[in-house]
Amino acid sequence: MRSQRTIKNSVSIEGIGLHSGIHCRVTINPAARDSGITFTRTDKPMVIKAHVGSVIDTAFATTIGQNGVKIRTVEHILAALAGLGIDNASIDVDGPEIPILDGSSTEFISLILKAEIAKQGKKRPYLRILKPFIFEDGHSKIAVFPHKGSRITYSIHFHHHGIGEQRLSMDINEESFAREIAPARTFGFVKDIEYLRTNGFAKGGSLDNAIVLGDNGILNATGLRFSDEFVRHKILDTIGDFSLLGFPIYGHIIASKSGHATNVKFLKKLISLPDAWDIILEDEYTPASSLLQINT
Description:
- The protein has helices spanning 75-83, 106-115, 174-181, 190-198, 229-242, 260-271, 291-295, and strands at residues 3-7, 11-16, 23-30, 37-41, 47-49, 55-57, 63-66, 69-71, 89-93, 117-123, 126-129, 133-137, 140-145, 150-158, 164-171, 187-189, 211-214, 217-218, 249-256, 277-281, 284-286.
- By secondary structure, the protein is of the alpha+beta class.
- The chain folds into two domains: 3-123, lpxc deacetylase, domain 1 (Ribosomal Protein S5, domain 2, 2-Layer Sandwich); 126-295, 2-Layer Sandwich (lpxc deacetylase, domain 1).
- Strands 11, 12, 13, 14, 15, 19, 20 and 21 form an eight-stranded mixed sheet that branches.
- A hairpin with a 2-residue loop joins strand 17 (211-214) and strand 18 (217-218).
- Helix 1 crosses helix 2, helix 1 (75-83) packs across helix 5 and helix 5 (229-242) runs parallel beside helix 6 (260-271).
- The longest helix has 14 residues, at 229-242.
- The chain is globular and about 55 Å long.
- The chain starts with a strand and ends with a helix.
- The model is unreliable at 284-289 and 291-296 (pLDDT under 50).
């Protein structure tokens, strides 16, 4: 079991929001141990905890909010923090959405490493899966099984010749996340752009921050970063969404055709099944029923 971590110095980055099209600035600050990840809308002062209970929308991104104040597209920065094992941070956002940057978590990884990682002298609790649990949501499915460590297996199937069926299984640690998952970009289809923008989505989307697929293939001149970049990005999103549980998961997550909505539904259902997991605190066991108290 490792020590809790934060960052040593405050660091900032700015860019356009994928869905809002609004230019936003984000500053990641150090935070005290046991405080978790929090977001503050500096233009509408409101602290929002990064927790599954704070999720208010999952349409094409994960949005958290409280008392009418919301922050869209938090999954990529959350994935970077979780991937590098940052447990405590206070994030200031001066607009309605986290910048999309290049559509991956790479720039957030670089930002966090620039800030430097600081150990905090207290062990980090983790949630250990005790028995299998399978959750089905329409055509999507997520299962979790006991496993020594953190492993994700993900499969997707799109009826497009540029994607098709892709499957990837890997153990997740800081090195594998930064090298194999963080660079994978979000993606979309030309045929969906008009619908998305008409309904308030993808206003800031471009070939600079997403892989775009047309009828004849990928439109990005730079091509793909991985031959299976699409499933890797789905794993990135899952890591970001699952960090909203508030604890690292020690188990094997197996997901098929899942997205933000199914991820959040799965977490809420898992929380409600206290016989499926326990929380390890140093050498002690914390009763499963205490999870909600810990995260509120």
